[in-house]
Specification:
Length: 295
């Protein structure tokens, strides 16, 4: 089936075969079944609000795809220059966001195995994203809400920002990645590998945060204490102190966003020597009276 420039197609019921091509067309899928290998080419706008769309959907450069409902089967590809928004429905695994595509997720479900390649921008503000998310070199992933499941991998050259939402356990900031945690909740067993850069200025982190030798972890806030004693040299905004910890330790303070925190060897946290920097921030807003510990 070919929908050419200027045409408009609405599918509410029935069955449409495979190899659908939309070229500069408007396509609305609200029900029925559409076969595999749907191709949305430049200038086309595709809205999926219901029904079932077969595997290997491809959004090409200049196309816009909005998924608000329905069931999109495995092998979705957001190719270079495409724009995809997911606010409902379910998109089966795997999902591939290729170079220079933009993907926004503010609802719905995206299953396991999301791949964000070089130049891709992924914005997650709602919905549920499955496990094994891979942010690859040159990609930018911004998490402001929603839920992202376990084993997120920020690979070399990737930039990840977390300012809200709930990110699952076993997050890996791999060598060469840059991760900023400004809010939200991050699950247990976060790992910062050698040559990774991690900045923490807010949010809640579960137990088991660990940094490997050669990584750089910067904690921004105020009222820093190590084993109950104030950390010297942090009197003014912008002051920094690199801290090496004993085998048994407790580091406490208040993040820049006003959230109290504690890192402790008794909670399986650990920082290799030379990896932890404490940075004095401006006075934070008033925070909660106690530390929030995730379940």
């Amino acid at each position: 089936f070919n929908a050419d420039v200027g045409s408009s197609v609405t599918i509410e019921d029935g069955r449409v075969g495979k190899n659908f091509e939309a070229v500069g067309a408007v396509v609305n899928i609200g029900g029925g079944r559409v076969g595999e290998n749907f191709n949305a080419f430049a200038g086309s706008t595709v809205t999926i609000s219901g029904g079932v769309v077969g595997r290997n959907f491809a959004a090409y450069g200049g196309s816009t795809v909005a998924i608000t409902g329905g069931d999109v089967r495995r092998g979705f590809a957001a190719n270079s220059g495409s724009t995809v928004t997911i606010s409902g429905g379910i998109v089966r695994s795997p999902f591939n966001a290729f170079t220079d595509s933009t993907v926004t997720i503010n609802g719905g479900v995206v299953e396991n195995g999301f791949q964000a390649d070089s130049g891709t921008t992924v914005n997650i503000s709602g919905g549920t994203v499955g496990a094994y998310f891979a942010a690859n070199s040159g990609s930018a992933v911004n998490i402001t809400g929603g839920t992202v499941a376990e084993q997120f991998a920020a690979n070399s050259g990737a930039t990840v920002s977390i300012s809200g939402g709930d990110v699952g356990p076993w997050f890996a900031a791999n060598s060469g990645s840059t991760v900023a945690i400004r809010g939200g909740m991050v699950g247990d067993s976060f790992r910062a590998d050698s040559e990774a850069t991690v900045s923490i200025s807010g949010g809640t982190l579960a137990n088991g945060f660990r940094s490997s030798s050669g990584s750089n972890v910067v904690v921004r806030g105020v009222d820093f204490r190590v084993d109950g004693e104030p950390v010297p040299g942090l009197n003014s905004e912008g002051d920094i102190a690199r801290v090496n910890l004993s085998e048994s330790f407790l580091v406490t303070g208040t993040f820049e966003d006003g959230t109290p925190f504690a890192f402790s060897s008794y909670d399986s946290d650990g920082f290799a020597d030379g990896t932890l920097t404490l940075a004095r921030s401006a006075p934070p807003p008033a925070g909660p009276p106690s530390i929030n510990v995730p379940n």
